[in-house]
Amino acid sequence: MHTGVEKGVGSMGFVTIRDVAREAGVSTTAVSQILHGKGRFSEPTKELVRRTVQRLGYIPDSRAQAMRSDRTHMVGLLVPDLHNPYFADLVSSMETMLYERGVGALIGTSAESVKRQDAYFMRILSQRIDGVIAVPQGQVSDGLKAVVKRELPLVFVDRRVPGLEQVPYVVSDPKPGLAQALKQLKSFGHQRVAYVSHPSLGSFSVDERTQAFRELAPQVLGPGAAAVYACDGSSSSQEQVLSDILDSSATAVIFGYSRDAVSLFSLLRGRNIAIGSQLSLISFDDIEVFRLISPKVAIISQQANRMGRQGVRILLDRIGSDLEPGSQAVSIATRFQLRDSVGRVA
Amino acid sequence: MHTGVEKGVGSMGFVTIRDVAREAGVSTTAVSQILHGKGRFSEPTKELVRRTVQRLGYIPDSRAQAMRSDRTHMVGLLVPDLHNPYFADLVSSMETMLYERGVGALIGTSAESVKRQDAYFMRILSQRIDGVIAVPQGQVSDGLKAVVKRELPLVFVDRRVPGLEQVPYVVSDPKPGLAQALKQLKSFGHQRVAYVSHPSLGSFSVDERTQAFRELAPQVLGPGAAAVYACDGSSSSQEQVLSDILDSSATAVIFGYSRDAVSLFSLLRGRNIAIGSQLSLISFDDIEVFRLISPKVAIISQQANRMGRQGVRILLDRIGSDLEPGSQAVSIATRFQLRDSVGRVA
């Protein structure tokens, strides 16, 4: 994408129709009409505008372009990381639903980096697309502002961005599934439950789960029945958390971050601890490996498919309508799914 | 994307510059020059060409567009399935390498469907891109022909397409890693080795591994030391394969398809069979779960990162050069990595 490097061009790093009009000394309407082959202008004026467009690297507004030439039936999808099976599920469910509706997807990833996210947004704006669905990095960035400024339909899924309340979003509510999990543990005789958090990730949704546990565990199990252990993903941290939990009186453990659950599952196996009888285990996230290993791991599912499909529905509604964009907040309830990794206390 | 629905327009479902020229009754050179604002033509001729372009929904050739307005620094990446960690690794390594070189990626998936692959190709051709890297479905399709016809730089990775020999490709050679694995097993005293194939998948590369095993196992272990068991991924098939292997005299098993390895790992655990001592286990594909479970699973790695990076290198070379496209075949050697799932025969 051509970004405005000339002095005074584009307050946000890209060239607008206003920049072209100012440089060429004509109105924005004239620029628009000349580019669309409309209106009556002298050849020198047309030539000047075309040269200015070329020199500044102006890319006609995608939204206006889409409105002019009908819809392009393409949308951008941005997720943080395709290595993470949860995001792979989320993006695949969105792509498939779009495909079924005759819409193509142009997928990109941010690698959890604001800079890389913004590079994707800047590039996707120069493509022929009708809208974008994004799992955003959690702050107002230049790239996000650019998408909003262009009035390109935009929907957030899984996360939202404080300060951009006008963007519709679909997020997951950790509480319903977590409450079901805690009630199930209680009914199986568990009186003390450990929770493994992962604050070093800096993820809004992972931290929100920890908050939900701190709030719900005392309500369901009573005061003092729950403890939170922070893991940072390193081997030493995993070993430390495991030792702390085994030294405690906890008979069950809930993981807020699924990668920690996979790692500790393996460490527990290595210590010959019987998962499901000696220690019960539950993890957030419905990832395939939890169905493949033995015993199968009970989960609190974020309903990635439902979230993705809801996001697609909102985006397609917005693309199809002439309504002014407005805020819209959808919360998808998590669900607990009991599996063999959870058993009764002997 | 606008597809040609008018009678007689576009033999492959989309509008070409020839269609515009024929409809407008001018030469293709005239169409090209008018669209690029070059040449000397009367206003009525220009207007006729512009209207014809608009009416037919002609999208200027991406390659010509890219050559005209310099490069777009965007490429398309097509993989079969983001749920498969191997393809998630492959596409992520390509996207990251492109990002480091200032090139954006527009990722799509085919869901192992020729129809969906072709829908991606047809759509990506209407975007502003410099080239495409694809893990293709294994046959010459309309979508593939369209990309080749447009002379858009194209590289295949992981698979190739018989009949499209002019397209450069980077594939994996299963033999080096498999030979290393078999020699390691032999040095640990294993005399009989089972192999689990997955012919129902219809994957060229998975079937090629089976072929390699049939060829190499007798060479390394001697005649009659190896047997192949076909698994179709169903529970009953997995149980059957497991029983057959346990009933045989095999002391080690190699999996051609990593999902089968994950499932059977779990079933072996359920039967309290000590992996690494009672039965040694090796799988193709370097996926994360093999490093997370205990014992860690020995792998024959396809070197997805190396393959992806090599594919990117070839594509960027082709985009940057004026050379005629020509065939180029790169084979990346697989590598065996010993882990605790492989042990000595007692």
Features:
homodimer; 346 residues; alpha/beta; 434 Repressor (Amino-terminal Domain); Rossmann fold; 3 domains; 13 helices; Lambda_DNA-bd_dom_sf (chains A, B)
Q: What's the assembly state of these chains?
A: homodimer
Shape category of chain A: elongated
Percent of residues of chain A in helical segments? Answer: 40-55%
Give the strand content of chain A: 15-25%
Order of helices and strands of chain A: HHHHEHEHEHEEHEHEHEHEHEHEE
**What is the residue-mean pLDDT of chain A, rounded to a whole number?**
87
The H-level CATH homologous superfamily of the largest domain in chain A, spelled out, is: Response regulator
Q: Quick one: biggest sheet of chain A? A: 6 strands, parallel
Radius of gyration of chain A: 25 Å
Number of domains of chain A: 3
Just name the CATH architecture of the largest domain in chain A. 3-Layer(aba) Sandwich
In total, the number of strands of chain A is 12
Q: Which strand order do you get reading across the main beta sheet of chain A?
A: 2-1-3-4-5-11
Largest interface (CB within 8 Å) is between:
A-B, 48 and 50 residues
| Count of helix runs of chain A | 13
Pfam families (chains A, B): LacI, Peripla_BP_3
Domain HTH lacI-type (chains A, B): 15-69
InterPro entries (chains A, B): HTH_LacI (IPR000843), LacI/GalR-like_sensor (IPR046335), Lambda_DNA-bd_dom_sf (IPR010982), Peripla_BP_I (IPR028082)
Keywords (chains A, B): DNA-binding, Transcription, Transcription regulation
